[in-house]
Write a structure and sequence with these properties.
758 residues, alpha+beta, Aldehyde Oxidoreductase, domain 4, 7-stranded mixed β-sheet, 5-stranded mixed β-sheet, 22% strand, globular
């Protein structure tokens, strides 16, 4: 990429400032381990050896997994990283999410979010990634997102297990009067091979906690792994299938109150007035309060149960002000288009001179297309909820969240309490998809708790309040043009993408006042960073001034860019009269990882072999979150409607720590993407979202779900993510399959605007 130094300058300066600040104010602190938060609340007879491990004298071993469990299997796989090195089985451990603390910061999300393709290992790219790792530690944000949990925990948590193992061996050596070198560990015991004597970890834990841990421990080579690389039973599954109370909405505390909220239905709009007189007459209603938050403006009803709070909220008479946003979808599209037309964007990929290549291009060699993707809801099964208690100068928040450190920030801002007086208890999440990184539901719960005189209060949103208030996956519009060469391959491509900035929106809500100027690579993820070699290639991004609140949605910018970029690649393949798989193979010939995926995909799907006229296949490829993914979708015409019949997925994450769980995430991601492609959208009329529940924002149903075949490769050499990478390519692959079936090129999602689905 010719201008990568220019592209990265702002990010590099941010990282450099963090490094320089570390030097000026004590860079040595960056190199020091952060405080172990487990020391503050140990039970009698319990010891902690590092922030990830507690061991009790009765041999109870607790592993801290500081990433949210929202169905993706993080509890099991991350715990296995520790268990593998600690030489215990998963049956021997208990898993906890643990407290909100800087020790659990996620630097991988920032490293992976640097504005460089995953295949770019240049000095500039690696310098910026390392600098962003420094930023990550200084910011100390504990967050689950960006498919980064395994990449972040892979070394940290293995080191935690290995360090604890060696410290326990040192304690055993002192007790047994032998050298550490004569000892081995197995199934929670330290064993002296010569004498056969052994001590359990529980017998050693308190003594081990007094020993300085070794600074250089050896991690087990992959050849010695017993747990990692193999399917493991999900540790969270027994509680889920037996209905145990583990989710945020299950929280019950003594003397609890219940509440719900109603916010202005037009995002960003104020509440002019409200009359709660009728609501206050209703049985069980305690109080109705106004809420004026960065996340919404409206009111909350506090009652003695949730249903009564819901009914009382319906009885409140309220006058809403108009919001500042677009009035309808046509206006949103107009704003997106005018943003591109107005110029002033940023480029994250610039090779050659596309404009020069276009200047003398014959008309028959030019291909142009415009694509649109709508706002989308996350549509989690568990509606937004949180429980809060402000009592005796201490704030406790029980929340199904993806970012506990953000809740601490919000809690401190609202209550003015010191960090140590704020406790965040992270429950299991009934779906997250990026929605629960947002702190709005916890913000409202804290505000309500400030009005309940020390009593805990559970604030539960209705499904309608949840789905019709966002924040949403942003809408996006892209304009592409290309020149086709005499060989059928593109000589030049220029893409322009306009979308509201997810990063500016999230930062503005969480840390208002923090500057968010400059490029937002989330707008271009899935297009600028793809492994296509084209001599003249430019991708520009534009921050659109749409005020509807937007946030991370499963695969973020990749979710709309992959649809647009891969649909356009398919158009170019047909314009150049080249098979779509072979077309991609020619453009990605410099990337063996991609070629291996395409070859495997061709074999699995029988790509190119004749099938009957009622069926057709489409292909798409996306590199996202460090994982290379190719997908083929097969569709079938059933009496004029489309059935999504089969999906083949080949993914290369570099290394697979649990193949069964990885495949489950690939399947989940594909179905999530197909649901969006087939029929999901948040549309606007009179400034307000129109969809409010699954009746008008439905997901793919079981009878619609295709057969899904998944193959995993491990060639890339980089540990990629699992939760999101299967979502982006499936939307384009479906659209491309429909074109192959009936010649209808659909350039706007959802696709049911132009075809019907079975």
């Amino acid at each position: 990429m010719a201008s990568i130094g220019k592209i990265a300058r702002r990010t590099f300066l941010v990282g450099a400032a963090a490094v320089a600040g570390g030097v000026a104010f004590g860079y040595y602190k960056y190199r020091q381990p952060l405080e172990n938060p487990l020391k503050k609340d140990l039970a009698n007879g319990e010891a902690t050896l590092n922030p990830y491990i507690k061991i009790a004298s009765d041999n109870r071993i607790t592993v801290i997994v500081p990433r949210a469990e929202m169905g993706q299997g993080a509890f099991t796989t991350l715990a296995a990283l520790v268990a593998e090195e600690l030489d215990v089985t998963l049956d021997q451990i208990v898993i906890e999410h643990g407290p909100a603390a800087p020790a659990y910061y996620n630097d991988a999300a920032l490293r992976e979010g640097a504005p460089f393709p995953a295949f770019d290992h240049s000095m500039v790219a690696e310098t910026v990634r390392n600098a962003m790792g420094v930023v990550g530690k200084f910011l100390a944000l504990q967050m689950t997102g960006g498919s980064s949990s395994l990449a972040d925990g892979y070394e940290k948590m293995r080191l935690a297990g290995a360090t604890a193992r060696e410290t326990l061996k040192s304690a055993a050596a002192q007790k047994l009067g032998v050298s550490v070198g004569s000892l081995k560990t197995e199934a929670g015991k330290v064993i002296d091979a010569k004498s056969g004597r052994s001590l359990t970890y529980g017998e050693l834990a308190l003594d081990a906690a007094k020993i300085d841990p070794p600074s250089d421990v050896a991690l087990k080579p992959r050849s010695q792994w017993k747990l990692l690389g193999k399917p493991q039973p999900r540790k969270d599954m027994p509680a889920k299938v037996t209905g145990q109370p583990i989710f945020g909405i299950d929280v019950q505390l003594p003397d609890m109150l219940y509440a719900t909220v109603r916010m202005n239905p037009q995002p960003g709009g104020a509440m002019k007035s409200f009359d709660a007189s009728e609501a206050l007459k209703m049985r069980g209603v305690k109080k109705v309060i106004a809420i004026d938050s960065l996340y919404g403006k409206g009111f909350a009803v506090i009652a003695d149960n949730t249903w009564r709070a819901f009914k009382a909220a319906d009885a409140v008479k309220v006058v809403w002000a108009d919001g500042p946003g677009h009035r309808d979808d046509a206006e949103a599209k107009k704003i997106l288009a005018s943003t591109i037309a107005g110029g002033g964007g940023f480029s994250l990929r610039s090779a050659g001179d596309p404009e020069k290549a276009f200047a003398d291009a014959p008309r028959e060699k030019l291909v142009e297309a415009e694509y649109y993707a709508p706002f989308l809801s996350h549509a989690t099964m568990e509606p937004m909820n949180a429980t809060a208690r402000l009592k005796d100068g201490v704030l406790d928040v029980w929340s199904p969240n993806q970012a506990p450190s953000v809740i601490k920030i919000i809690g401190a801002r609202l209550t003015k309490l010191a960090d140590e007086k704020i406790n965040v208890h992270t429950t299991f999440l009934g779906g997250g998809f990026g929605r629960r990184i947002e702190p709005d539901f916890s913000d409202y719960a804290i505000r309500v708790a400030m009005e309940t005189e020390g009593r805990p209060v559970k604030v539960t949103w209705t499904r309608e309040e949840d789905m019709s208030h966002g924040p949403y996956r942003p809408a996006a519009l892209a304009k592409y043009r290309a020149r086709i060469g005499n060989d059928g391959l593109p000589v030049a491509i220029h893409g322009s993408v306009a979308s509201p900035s997810v990063m500016a929106g999230m930062v503005g809500r969480i840390m208002p006042g923090l500057p968010t100027a400059g490029p937002d690579n989330l707008i271009l993820d899935g297009t600028y960073n793809q492994p296509y070699t084209i001599p003249n290639y430019r991708i520009d991004g534009y921050k659109a001034p749409l005020t509807t609140p937007v946030a991370s949605w499963r695969s973020v910018g990749n979710s709309f860019n992959a649809f647009m970029n891969e649909s356009f690649m398919d158009e170019l393949a047909h314009a150049g009269k080249i098979d779509p798989l072979e077309f991609r193979r020619k453009l990605m010939v410099d990337y063996p990882t991609a070629i291996a995926i395409l070859d495997k995909l061709k074999t699995l799907s029988d790509w190119g072999k004749p099938i009957d006229q009622t069926r057709a296949q489409g292909i798409a490829f996306t590199l996202s979150f460090g994982t290379w993914v190719g997908e083929v979708v097969q569709v079938k015409d059933e009496n004029g409607s489309i059935r999504v019949e089969k999906v083949w997925i080949v993914a290369d994450p570099g290394m697979v720590l649990d193949p069964l769980n990885f495949k489950a995430q690939m399947m989940s991601g594909a179905i999530y993407g197909l649901s969006a492609a087939i029929g999901q959208q948040i549309s606007f009329a009179d400034g307000a979202p129109q969809q409010s529940n699954f009746s008008d924002y439905d997901a793919m149903r079981m009878n619609q779900c295709p057969d899904i075949v998944i193959e995993i490769l491990e060639n890339s050499g980089h540990l990629g993510g699992a939760g999101e990478p299967a979502t982006p390519p499936v939307m384009a692959a479906l659209a491309n399959a429909i074109f192959a079936l009936n010649g209808k090129r659909i350039r706007s999602m959802p696709l049911n605007g132009e075809v019907s689905f079975v």
